[in-house]
């Protein structure tokens, strides 16, 4: 136990902190992510065997990298590609082995994130790819978060990796002229991970399938690797503001608590302080961005912890700005909710009516919940009741459903 | 890597090839595009194709030959030509595809060429 314990711990730590760094280094040259994953898992298995006997190496990452590269090289030889390709791999192997002795070998994870969110990759598989390649999550865990069968998720991931390799996607940061758009895709994919399980998670049980922690890890990584991109900071700030309020979204009995009724004492002060710092730093670049704007809206909400009031004027200004620059259905419904919170039910209803022709609202729960509240405030209780019931039908979150059904039965 | 750019055009595009006023601009755009590819030294091979009305499609089913007038699929965008280019990666191929006149009016499908069997590099 004495010999094995530390070795296993070192392997586990290396697995958690270094997986993405190692995988990005191993796949960058060959574009073969699946091959690199196999080689890396063999290296981890070898470490579990070797380290307890011979002790943990000084630089576990370098050891793992060298072991995995040897496997890749052997695999290339076995495939009978002992021509130019094999020679090239051998040359680069030698070059990189030298690099591997440096404990601070290069970090290619940013490149890997851009590959995962490449426009040639289907938008629906970008987030799962990131979670698997950069964080090492297995397909079953990802499948649970995205509410699909594990076999389906595995198949999507395999197909995407094959496309990356066979179509020859570029493993490099995008050219400056397409940088902004491509970064937007990366940020969107990370935010999508944050959104998984947000509404379907019952209570505070983090094991129920959400990936908020993983999304924040990726957000931190992006903010650190792209110190000059205000939107990377904006996204991280946004996720931290939301995460800070997670506990307060349920009362002691596990019932849903809407934002306006949450107890600010239950918000995480540390996360809010960090988010405020990020947002301030981002605003120095004076470049508008969707995520900074959304984070600023959250910032206004949490000011209530200090001032005791919500600055509705500031909120509607920010929502107007966001709706002009990034008019997604979520933003437009949230803008209507802000109008309602400011006491203008008629304007909120008008904003919601303007969305009615869009097919997506039929199944968009926040639309029906906001509409229900607006109808209630406008003195139309029967319609409000029906809208609350419809919103309740559209959520998989038991606590939120109970809250909405309660409102519907309340005579709204 | 070698990529094939499959260029499609609309019926309007095909008509421009022989249109007294528009043929100049049409061919000028293609010549400029091919010229840029040549200057970059990336063309492996390529051809333009005659109008889709000149196509004949053949199928053999149960040993019987079926010959049909017209292209294999009746769609708004029809195959108008192809290029095989040699570039570093998909991103470079997509950048070339985006510059083609076909991308602006119809579409360009970009596909990696199947490597020769055995992985030998010719």
UniProtKB/TrEMBL annotation, chain A:
Residues 182-282 form the DUF6596 domain. This is RNA polymerase subunit sigma-70. GO terms for biological process: DNA-templated transcription initiation. The lineage of its organism: Bacteria, Pseudomonadati, Pseudomonadota, Alphaproteobacteria, Hyphomicrobiales. PANTHER family: BLL6612 PROTEIN (PTHR47756:SF2), BLL6612 PROTEIN-RELATED (PTHR47756). Coiled coil: none annotated. Residues 19-80 form the RNA polymerase sigma-70 region domain. GO terms for molecular function: DNA-binding transcription factor activity.
TrEMBL record, chain B:
InterPro entries: Dimeric_a/b-barrel (IPR011008), YCII (IPR005545). Residues 113-122 have a biased composition (Pro residues). Residues 102-122 are annotated as: Disordered. Residues 1-115 form the YCII-related domain. Belongs to the YciI family. The lineage of its organism: Bacteria, Pseudomonadati, Pseudomonadota, Alphaproteobacteria, Hyphomicrobiales. It comes from Methylobacterium nonmethylotrophicum. This is YCII-related domain-containing protein.
């Amino acid at each position: 136990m004495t010999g094995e314990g530390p070795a296993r711990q070192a392997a586990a730590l290396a697995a958690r902190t270094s997986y993405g760094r190692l995988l990005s280094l191993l796949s960058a040259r060959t574009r073969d992510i699946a091959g690199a994953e196999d080689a890396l898992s063999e290296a981890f298995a070898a470490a579990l065997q070797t380290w307890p006997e011979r002790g943990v190496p000084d630089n576990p990452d370098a050891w793992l990298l060298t072991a995995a590269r040897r496997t890749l090289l052997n695999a290339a030889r076995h495939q009978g590609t002992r021509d130019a390709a094999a020679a090239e791999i051998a040359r680069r192997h030698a070059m990189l082995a030298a690099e591997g002795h440096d404990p601070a070998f290069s970090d290619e994870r940013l490149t890997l994130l851009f590959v995962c969110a490449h426009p040639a990759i289907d938008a629906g598989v970008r987030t799962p790819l990131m979670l698997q390649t950069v964080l090492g999550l297995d397909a079953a865990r990802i499948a649970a978060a995205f509410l699909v069968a594990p076999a389906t998720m595995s198949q999507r991931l395999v197909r995407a990796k094959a496309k990356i390799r066979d179509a020859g996607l570029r493993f490099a940061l995008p050219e400056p002229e397409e940088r902004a758009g491509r970064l937007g895709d990366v940020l969107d994919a990370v935010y999508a991970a944050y959104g998984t399980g947000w509404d379907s998670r019952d209570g505070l049980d983090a094991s129920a399938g959400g990936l908020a922690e993983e999304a924040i890890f990726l957000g931190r990584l992006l903010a650190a690797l792209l110190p000059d991109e205000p939107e990377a900071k904006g996204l991280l700030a946004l996720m931290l503001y939301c995460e800070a309020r997670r506990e307060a979204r349920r009362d002691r009995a596990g019932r849903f608590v809407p934002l306006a009724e949450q107890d600010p004492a239950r918000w995480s002060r540390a996360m809010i302080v960090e988010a405020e710092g990020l947002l301030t730093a981002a605003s120095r670049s004076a470049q508008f961005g969707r995520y900074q704007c959304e984070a600023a809206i959250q910032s206004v909400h949490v000011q209530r912890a200090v001032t005791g009031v919500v600055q509705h004027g500031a909120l509607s200004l920010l929502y107007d700005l966001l709706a002009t620059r990034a008019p997604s259905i979520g933003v437009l419904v949230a803008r209507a909710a802000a109008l309602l919170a400011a006491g203008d039910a008629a304007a909120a209803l008008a904003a919601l009516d303007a969305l009615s022709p869009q097919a997506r609202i039929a199944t968009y729960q926040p639309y029906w919940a906001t509409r229900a509240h607006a109808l209630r405030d406008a003195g139309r209780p029967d319609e409000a009741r029906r809208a609350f019931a419809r919103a309740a039908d559209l959520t998989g979150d038991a606590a939120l459903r109970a809250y909405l059904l309660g409102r519907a039965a309340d005579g709204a | 890597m070698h990529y094939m750019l499959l260029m499609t055009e609309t019926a309007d595009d095909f008509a421009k090839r022989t249109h007294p006023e528009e043929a100049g601009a049409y061919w000028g755009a293609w010549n400029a595009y091919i010229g840029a590819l040549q200057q970059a030294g990336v063309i492996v091979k390529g051809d333009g194709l005659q109008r889709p009305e000149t196509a004949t499609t053949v199928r053999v089913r149960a040993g019987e030959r079926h010959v049909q007038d017209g292209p294999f699929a009746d769609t708004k965008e029809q195959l108008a030509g192809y290029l095989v280019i040699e570039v570093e990666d998909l991103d470079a191929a997509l950048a070339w595809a985006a510059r083609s006149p076909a991308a602006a009016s119809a579409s360009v499908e970009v596909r990696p060429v199947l490597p020769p069997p055995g992985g030998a590099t010719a």
